[in-house]
Amino acid sequence: MWDSGWDDIFRKNEWGRYPPEEVVRVVARNFFGAPRRSDVAILEIGCGTGANLWFVAREGFRASGIDGSQVAIDRARQRMAEEHLTADLRVGDVATLPYANAAFDAVLDVECLYANSLKDSRGIVREVHRVLKPGGLFFSKTFMTGTYGDGKGTRLEGEPNTYVALDEGALRKGYGLVRFSSEADVRALYEPLFDIETLDTLVRTEKNRAYEVREWLAVCRALPVPR
Ligand SMILES: C[S@@+](CC[C@H](N)C(=O)[O-])C[C@H]1O[C@@H](n2cnc3c(N)ncnc32)[C@H](O)[C@@H]1O
Questions:
Q1: Where residue 59 sits, what CATH number does that domain have?
Q2: In the structure, which protein residues have their CB atom closer than 6 angstroms to any atom of ligand 1?
Q3: Backbone φ, ψ for residue 170 (5° rounding)
Q4: How does pLDDT run across 145-155, given as a tens digit for each residue?
């Protein structure tokens, strides 16, 4: 469920304007060779202010994005307009995706799913699968257990790796729910509906190596029939 705290975060902070290398890499590897890029439909769930979709649209793909934050979507629309780029941008909860079945070649989750409980994430992943073409690509960048802050906070009842609030770490203030994932968590969430093609990790340090931020990079393919 979308947390209205995100509106405040976007109101108070400038957000990154450029995609991380992992997004560039996964889009490049899978779609730069497409015969006609305008035929490739890419959706980002939780697109925020549109840093990733800016890249997707600029590279000539059909870009769509949805986010619960009106503030973020307004900013994304403004930037697209200023740079004469086109994207279908909508405000809404990703729990119910307002798109037809099999509408997309790819869905990107760039740190959106982690902000939802495991229970809600199961429904969101079902929606992602529904809107993807069979064999379509699902890329998920999501925080890993062991990231600084994990183990220090108030847990959501019934979900051992989900916190309603963290006491320490980069995600500690105003970010709403934070769900860390172990490898088993990632597999249990995605594998009923997807083949996990590659499951890699990204680990970086912050504050002169005072702490680590760990993330999963999951590249998945939508199964034609759920397991
Ligand atoms: C960490 S930000 C990432 C934004 C963007 N993907 C990026 O890389 O810049 C998480 C985003 O997910 C959105 N979000 C999280 N849960 C959501 C939900 N259930 N429905 C809609 N948006 C959601 C938040 O509003 C926020 O914009």
A1: 3.40.50.150
A2: 1-2, 6, 16, 46-48, 51-52, 67-69, 72, 93-95, 110-112, 115-116
A3: -65, -25
A4: 999 999 999 99
